[in-house]
Design a protein that fits this description.
Elements lengths: L1 E5 L2 E8 L3 E6 L10 H7 L3 E6 L16 H15 L4 E6 L1 H12 L4 E7 L11 H4 L2 H8 L7 H6 L5 H11 L4 H7 L3 E7 L10 H5 L5 E6 L6 H4 L1 H12 L22
Parallel strand pairs: 3-4, 3-5, 5-6, 6-7, 7-8
Antiparallel strand pairs: 1-2, 2-4
Length: 262
């Protein structure tokens, strides 16, 4: 277990591999732990860091840090503390929102962003996220997942107030404007059967800038990285391998990615 002290509070993280820095940010259910298989898949070429945000996992319950802006500030302070420069970001749900906020505030530091399960706004969020306890959310969203134990075990550690505050902040977020301001490449990924977050409709994707692309996993729910790990990992590696300036719109799913990795 690794940790740093920020704002006199403990921030837990794990790190794996060597190479260019890659930051993983978890969603509303679970912690850094469900990223472990994905981190292992890229560890040969990247130094992968996975953080527990304020109120989740082994990071302190720190209500003053529960806003989306403060969670993005946590990422900034973490990178400054460890002396990490330019990064790629992979965020899921809550982590996707935090990733985009961070990228909008520090565009010079973000090479690219993969945002999984990004909500268009509160209208695309299932109301159960507002009212259910974290452990109940885990059972609901991971019911059909074969590899969800890491998220199930970590879910009870979450402070429900951290979930609620982020969803309250989402009401005031202008996602189209945020995406318009994004200068780095961004890949948006959803699970077709996600019970928590509705994918952006195709018409919302049409007018996005060339540096942004949306893709849907047709056989997965809220956790594409757990439901179809091989497919997700290959897509991530292809995205990270894009040459600077190349549009993510050239990315596509491949038939050979369907094999599950154990």
């Amino acid at each position: 277990m690794s940790a740093v002290i920020l704002q006199d509070e403990i921030v837990h993280y794990e790190v794996l591999g060597r190479g260019r820095p890659l930051i993983f940010l978890h969603g509303w259910v679970g912690s850094w732990r469900y990223w472990a298989p994905t981190m292992q898949s890229v560890a040969g070429s990247y130094r992968a860091y996975a953080l527990d945000l304020w109120g989740f996992g082994a990071t302190s319950k720190h209500p003053a840090g529960y806003s989306l802006a403060q969670q993005a500030g946590l990422v900034a302070a973490f990178l400054d503390e460890l002396g990490i420069g330019k990064i790629a970001l992979v965020g899921h749900g809550l982590g996707a929102l935090v990733s985009l906020l961070f990228a909008s505030h520090r565009p010079h530091q973000v090479d690219r962003v993969l945002a999984v399960g990004l909500p268009e706004g509160t209208i695309s969020i299932n109301p159960r996220l507002y009212t259910s306890q974290p452990q109940d959310l885990a059972e609901w969203l991971l019911e059909r997942s074969l590899d969800g134990n890491a998220a199930r075990l970590e879910a009870p550690k979450a402070d429900p107030a951290a979930i609620r505050r982020s969803l309250e902040d989402l009401q005031a977020m202008n996602l189209p404007r945020l995406l318009d301001r994004l200068t780095s490449n961004c890949l948006l990924v959803w699970g077709q059967n996600d019970l928590a977050v509705q994918a952006l409709p195709p018409e919302s994707l049409v007018g996005l800038p060339e540096n942004i692309h949306g893709m849907t996993f047709e056989q997965t729910g809220h956790f594409p990285m757990l439901d179809e790990p091989s497919k997700f990992q290959h897509l991530l590696i292809d995205f990270l391998s894009l040459e600077p300036g190349a549009s993510p719109r050239q990315l596509q799913f491949r038939e050979e990615w369907k094999r599950r990795v154990r």
